[in-house]
Design brief:
Number of strands of chain B: 12
CATH topology of chain B: Rossmann fold
CATH class of chain B: Alpha Beta
Structural class of chain A: alpha/beta
Order of helices and strands of chain A: HEEHEEEEEEEEEEEEEEEEHHH
Oligomer: heterodimer
Radius of gyration of chain A: 20 Å
Strand content of chain A: over 45%
Shape of chain B: globular
Order of helices and strands of chain B: HEEEHEEHEEHHEHEHEHEEHH
Number of helices of chain A: 5
Shape of chain A: globular
Helix content of chain A: 10-25%
Radius of gyration of chain B: 18 Å
Largest sheet of chain B: 6 strands, mixed
Number of strands of chain A: 18
CATH architecture of chain B: 3-Layer(aba) Sandwich
Strand content of chain B: 25-35%
Number of helices of chain B: 10
Number of domains of chain B: 1
Largest sheet of chain A: 18 strands, mixed
Distance between the termini of chain B: 33 Å
Chain lengths: ~350, ~250
């Protein structure tokens, strides 16, 4: 369906409860504004292919809007194993939109680093991980603190393929992410982590869907957020296991650390299990900094501020513990550590 | 008199302590001088750990009466981290785990805080390697998260490693021997003996086996939040042999 003909989703819909569509739209919901391109540049010799926008219709309003808005549209085909690929995604202008499709036919690491200062940025990433391929993907949102950000992703993971997916959300004023993955073949695996540092008045809504269509598939999702100031972090998850997808092993863990009285956090994992012989677990916890951890560090000479900052840093870094790709993990940890050190100096 | 004051590390006077309104310590008196090793023994719930924790400044414990002096200065005004920087160290009975924080990072920050300057790269590595070797600790420890998934023995070794690096003037060791096998106990005892030469040392324990390896100058028996008897190493042997009932009668 095209965007202009779609009804605004009601807040009763799980996906739109905490960040309704009008709050994340760049202007008035009946408008599709003129947009600038988000430009993607690569660190390696791989070539980005510019492609025309497809005629695919989307049921989801955010995806339909991004398609109607246009913006840059690129495809990266990875057919041979290579050095890690760094993609700088730069947003400029007033409203910027970019689309990127990754066709992953060989094992590799791709890291996207999004920066820019527009009032509004929209990104739609789609990807297919071909059979037997191990793919590690990192996304770092380091947009300006006044930018509104909408991000949609759709991944298909084929038979015996593995997707490691890491998000570091530290930029933007109001962010809404809707990340969906489909395990589309027996033996496929996704390990996903989302780390968010919500500071000041930041609003960050991270929705992750993982769909197990076949048996013997595995997923592991960890979302950790630290919320300070008057920030609001929302973690919602939807894990579905289709009928007959037996021997599936899936888990979701959401943890939020509240660092101020005004900060808020929601952690809502949801399960829909239609198969009988599966292992599916989910857990959520929201709490202030542990007093025993504080006391332990302070008893070793660290001041209260130093102790809290070390605990927060460890807590956020720990979200990447479920990833196995060392390069991806180290890159994400380094970027997070630099960000936290800069935060401390402010 | 002046020299005695310099040598006095800890003075506890008529200390009464409550936790959530429940009295735990009911008038403890204790003096620890430099170079002395004191052992406190007692049943579970007697108040031994409370004594160590309140000296270190745990916020859950409220001093309702009495005073604590460290090197002649009242401790009440000092925050926990200021006590650590002043040279006090508590080896915890149950050290907190801190997922995501690597042991190496933690040790560097702790040493920097207590010494009031960042540790110098090569010299610190050398010092760290020597201490870890002494405690038979593998270097892989440094990249693990603090106490996260550690066995009981590993936790205790990490506590002693910190003590060796921080070189405290007052070491409070709360059941450091629990969870240690005989070999590990010997190694840990060696670390305690090394630090005890120039420090005051308070060992809380249930068992004689640690005191066979770390010779105490004084042994205190605590019952219901009061030190009811003080003696030499022979008191520990008697407690091990006869239990605490005979002291109940005496008390």
């Amino acid at each position: 369906m095209i965007y202009q003909k779609m009804a605004i989703p009601p807040r009763s819909e799980h996906l739109w409860r905490y960040t309704p569509w009008p709050r994340i739209h760049p202007s008035s919901t009946d408008e599709v504004p003129e947009v600038d391109d988000v430009t993607f540049s690569l660190s390696t010799e791989h070539e980005l292919e510019s492609i025309s926008h497809s005629a695919t219709t989307h049921e989801d309003i955010a995806r339909a809007f991004l398609q109607s808005a246009g913006g840059s549209n690129n495809r990266l085909i990875i057919s041979e194993e290579s050095e890690p690929i760094h993609i700088d995604a730069r947003a400029s202008g007033h409203v910027a939109v970019g689309h990127l499709h990754l066709d992953v036919k060989a094992s590799c690491v791709v890291l996207i680093h999004l920066i820019g200062e527009p009032e509004w940025v929209g990104i739609h990433i789609t990807g297919k991980v071909h059979p037997n391929v191990q793919f590690s993907f990192g996304f770092i949102n380091e947009l300006d603190s006044n930018t509104k950000f909408l991000r949609c992703e759709d991944w298909i993971v084929e038979r015996d393929a593995e997707l490691e997916h890491a998000t570091l959300s530290i930029g933007g004023f109001r962010c809404k992410s809707d990340l969906r993955s489909t395990l589309n073949g027996t033996g496929s695996t996704i390990r996903q982590s989302v780390t968010a540092n919500a500071v000041g008045p930041r609003h960050d809504d991270e929705h992750v869907e993982i769909h197990h269509l076949h048996g013997h598939t595995n997923s592991d999702l960890v979302m950790n957020s630290a919320c300070s100031g008057s920030s609001h972090f929302i973690a919602t998850g939807l894990l579905t296991i289709a009928e007959g997808a037996n021997k599936t092993d899936a888990s979701q863990v959401f943890r939020n650390l509240l660092l101020s009285e005004k900060a808020r956090a929601e952690a809502i994992p949801e399960l829909e299990v239609l198969a009988d012989d599966v292992s599916a677990a989910h857990g959520a916890a929201t709490a202030p900094v542990d007093k025993n951890q504080m006391h332990y560090l302070m008893s070793r000479g660290l001041s209260p501020d130093e102790s809290q900052s070390l605990i927060v840093s460890g807590f956020l870094l720990n979200a990447f513990s479920n990833l196995s790709n060392k390069y991806l993990t180290e890159e994400m940890k380094t970027r997070l550590t630099v960000h936290l050190e800069c935060e401390l100096k402010r | 008199m002046g020299e005695r004051m310099v040598d006095e590390i800890l003075r506890v006077e008529n200390l009464h302590v409550s936790v959530e309104g429940t009295p735990i310590l009911n008038g403890v008196n204790l003096i620890i001088n430099r170079g002395e090793i004191h052992a406190v023994m007692g049943r579970n719930g007697a108040g031994k750990s409370t004594l160590a924790n309140v000296v270190m400044g745990h916020p859950a414990y409220v001093i309702t009466e009495g005073s604590i002096f460290y090197k002649g200065q009242p401790l009440e005004e000092l925050e926990v981290f200021e006590r650590a920087r002043a040279g006090m160290f508590l080896s915890f009975q149950y050290p907190a785990s801190i997922p995501g924080v690597q042991v190496g990072t933690f040790l560097k920050k702790s040493v920097a805080s207590v010494r009031d300057e960042p540790p110098k790269g090569r010299a610190f590595r050398k010092e760290l390697n020597a201490a870890m070797e002494q405690l038979s600790m593998d270097k892989s420890f440094l990249s693990r998260y603090v106490n996260d998934g550690f066995s009981g023995g590993e936790k205790k070794r990490l506590e002693i490693l910190q003590m060796l690096l921080l070189q405290p003037h007052l070491a409070l060791l709360d059941e450091t021997d629990s969870g240690l096998d005989i070999d590990a106990l010997r190694i840990v005892a060696q670390g305690i003996n090394e630090v005890a030469v120039n420090s005051g040392c308070l060992i809380i324990t249930h068992y004689q086996r640690l005191l066979d390896l770390v010779k105490p100058d004084f042994v205190h028996a605590m019952i219901d939040g009061v030190i009811v008897r003080t003696g030499g190493p022979e008191l520990a042997l008697r407690l091990e042999d006869k239990g605490y009932e005979w002291l109940d009668v005496a008390a």
